[in-house]
Design goal:
Radius of gyration: 18 Å
Mean pLDDT: 81
Helix content: over 70%
Number of helices: 9
Structural class: mainly alpha
Shape: globular
Strand content: under 5%
Order of helices and strands: HHHHHHHHH
Low-confidence stretches: none
Largest sheet: none
Number of strands: 0
Distance between the termini: 22 Å
């Protein structure tokens, strides 16, 4: 089980470095109920990230096996890795073409500061389950869990451990705010502004690294 968790670290890092959820939770801290809303956001994200990886693992376990390993799963990793690398190139080109422009928040993000705690939970679920990049990382994690052939109970435990690692950024922000809001508030605002300004290149770097890892794992599994 520990070996499988170790193999999941690159995917967890990719999810943890995804800037949109971090920007969102930092904006949630500006709502009228920042403590409750941020806690709801954290729980919603954790549960959804774990569920995506677990569903992908159970689905991958149903794939036909060839030579003791899932041939279809290996091909899926290669295809997914190639898609992520292509996406990274697109993001880099887009960033290079617009880096002289002043970054600004989309309208839907700017409205987050007026959200309620249930609204924050819904936002976390959407960002984790509908965002294609997030789902791609979750599918990669699920394929890795399935490749380890754990039982159902062990798969749940591994998925929960993966979700802790994947959500560590959001968890750290919320915990720091709950413990010392006055001291960390200004620093969190600076982090938010930096993420807004550099989110495209951060996403590109994460996609490139995870894409290369997926292709390498897929080729080894063939």
């Amino acid at each position: 089980m520990l070996d499988v968790v170790g193999d999941l670290i690159p995917f967890a890092v990719g999810v943890a470095l995804s800037p949109l959820p971090l920007i969102a939770v930092l904006l949630v801290l500006g709502s009228s109920s920042p403590r409750e809303a941020s806690a709801f956001f954290m729980v919603g994200r954790y549960v959804t990230v774990a569920a995506v990886a677990l569903l992908a693992a159970f689905a991958a376990g149903l794939l036909p096996e060839q030579g003791g390993t899932s041939f279809v799963g290996a091909v899926l990793r290669i295809v997914l890795g190639a898609v992520l690398i292509g996406w990274a190139v697109h993001k880099t080109v887009h960033w290079a073409g617009g880096r002289d422009q002043e970054p600004e928040l989309p309208g839907w993000m700017a409205s987050i500061q007026g959200t309620t705690p249930p609204g924050a939970a819904r936002l976390a679920i959407i960002l984790s389950a509908v965002n294609v990049k997030e789902v791609a990382f979750g599918v990669g994690a699920g394929l890795t869990i399935a490749a380890g052939r754990p039982g159902p109970g062990a798969a749940v435990v591994v998925a929960l451990c993966y979700a802790v690692l994947a959500c560590v950024g959001v968890i750290a922000v919320v915990v720091c705010y709950l413990v010392a809001a006055d001291r960390v508030g200004p620093a969190l605002e600076r982090v938010r502004d930096w993420l807004v300004a550099n989110n495209k290149i951060i996403i590109a770097g994460v996609l490139l690294v995870i894409g290369a890892i997926l292709i390498g794992e897929g080729l080894r599994a063939l």
